[in-house]
Amino acid sequence: MKLTILFGGASFEHEISIVSAITLKEKLSSFDLSFIFCDQDHSFYLIPAQKMKAITFSKAEHKKMPKLSLVNGAFLEKKMFSTIEHKNTVLNLIHGADGEDGTVAALLDFFSIRYIGPRVNASVFSYDKRYTKWLCEAKGMKSVAYEMLSLHEHKNITLEYPVIVKPASLGSSIGVSIVKDESELDYALDVAYEYDKSILIEPFIKGVKEYNLAGYMANGKMVYSIVEEPQKEEFLDFEKKYMDFSRSEQVLKADISAELESKLRASFDKVYKNMFEGALIRCDFFVVKGEVLLNEINPIPGSMANYLFEDFAGGLEALASSLPHNKRASVNYDYIHSISSAKGK
Amino acid sequence: MKLTILFGGASFEHEISIVSAITLKEKLSSFDLSFIFCDQDHSFYLIPAQKMKAITFSKAEHKKMPKLSLVNGAFLEKKMFSTIEHKNTVLNLIHGADGEDGTVAALLDFFSIRYIGPRVNASVFSYDKRYTKWLCEAKGMKSVAYEMLSLHEHKNITLEYPVIVKPASLGSSIGVSIVKDESELDYALDVAYEYDKSILIEPFIKGVKEYNLAGYMANGKMVYSIVEEPQKEEFLDFEKKYMDFSRSEQVLKADISAELESKLRASFDKVYKNMFEGALIRCDFFVVKGEVLLNEINPIPGSMANYLFEDFAGGLEALASSLPHNKRASVNYDYIHSISSAKGK
């Protein structure tokens, strides 16, 4: 299968996206892959497979590679006397801003480029954790209690310590702190406000059971990964997550009951259906007293959570063959014609 | 003030957008205006002011005009031996799909073009009426009761007739029907499903009081229009709305108490703040037994609801001078560098 991996982006998770792309290059070696890099200035470059190394980007060598622009149906490469249209299905692998906030989705929709990844609506409801809470409420799903703080309207928090402080709209634990008591709060807020003007405060539930489940819909059917119980310390900081994004070895299935697995799948369905079609996502759940709570939606998980699937390449191919159709309104000028003729013009 | 009016779009409201743009050309005659048309194939054209007539587009004469492409910071016009960058602040006047669904917002954000109009998140919560309901619930605002139907999971409705049937994601009354009893339901659903695969059913409240209020935030302060009580029949059909979009005469203030006006403004604030900054929007409210219900958010109202403002041009200028800043993450390669050096590479 031909597939273009789109990665990079003007995002705090820019480096993570590079690591993800390099990992998928290995993992999808049976595919006919091409690579498009979006740099921090929002320019696109076509990266030859042999140049898919972290150092290419950290040394800005990508700037010597062919620059691409978006046109209807393709990324366009201009040669001296000709142009090449790159028209493959795109895998949106830009983590964080640009990729997960709906921007890249809108861009690819507008230019009629087929892609694997969350659509605009789905991006908005997963990128900003506040809207994920709204989604939970609307769909009758439990999630962790929370309070919002915002830079301009400061107020006191009422949750009991310890709490976890998160920028509303970042992944990969960037700007996240665990706050044990009030004396640590201001510093944690300062850190989080570096990244977002809205902050989410949640109770820190010590020793909570955490389970990750990935999946997608292909040919009208849900396909689920194994359930993983992530081995972690208090929480993954950025550096650990970074390493996490290069995972490619399949992991062991969590030792859970069939009943819990089916509860997790049912919760996954509630999140996914009528929202995330076209994307392979990973949901991170907490289980508290037998009850499933949604913690986070990763609409573009690190290295596409390849390590959770038995047949990752086959699954991605099935997903690529059943992407949502973007029905575009057809325009006519009936009213203008009828008004013009009424005016005798 | 220099301002570029962006209009058209691949939308069922394409013609309405043309009418809106022509109306604003007259209404903003004190501005230094330029006009960019987005056609149904998503190509952009620069339209000379004297060609801003409906017939230019219905006869496809725009195709003879300069074609533009998006580059970082501008719409680019290629001349024989040079290029011109069109860098003015843009007024997003594309009604319906493209303009109000977050696509154009994302495009302008991505290419760092300043614009008046709803941002991506705000677009998602106003374009799809289902998500407007979620917004109401999250913000503790009342709205009309509703049920959702979708093309793939048909079910019976439980609301009492008469009901109003609406495609979830269209404005301008397109595809909307009032259904007096069950015998009329199937036809109304067929009409609505022509436009959207999700349908909203609401009770039709006969003789409900309806009030429209527009506003925006400029320099940190909310600015409100007068409150209008729209004179209408059962509801405005497309043709009447179409005419409505060319309104430019200031209307009379609704005869309401100061108390109701302040209630409407308080509801408007709840919708607007932390969501619609950068946009001039119109909210349509119902008042039932003294209680304010949000009916609809118009994030790009027809002809920008100019007829509700005493100083429309001055207001737009103030809004343009206080648009949200799009803070873009700066990228460094700290982790890649540190990992490379740890590996001795």
| Number of helices in the DSSP assignment of chain A | 10
The top level CATH class name of the largest domain in chain A = Alpha Beta
- The CATH H-level homologous superfamily of the largest domain in chain A: ATP-grasp fold, B domain
Query: What is the overall silhouette of chain A?
Result: globular
Largest sheet of chain A: 8 strands, mixed
CATH level-3 fold name of the largest domain in chain A: D-amino Acid Aminotransferase, Chain A, domain 1
**Kindly, what is the distance between the CA atoms of the first and last residues of chain A, rounded to a whole number of angstroms?**
55 Å
**CATH architectural group of the largest domain in chain A:** 2-Layer Sandwich
Tally of structural domains of chain A = 3
Mean pLDDT of chain A: 91
Radius of gyration of chain A: 22 Å
Structural class of chain A: alpha+beta
Largest interface: chains, residues each: A-B, 61 and 61 residues
Enumerate the spans of chain A where pLDDT stays under 50 for 5 or more consecutive residues.
none
Q: Bin the strand percentage of chain A.
A: 25-35%
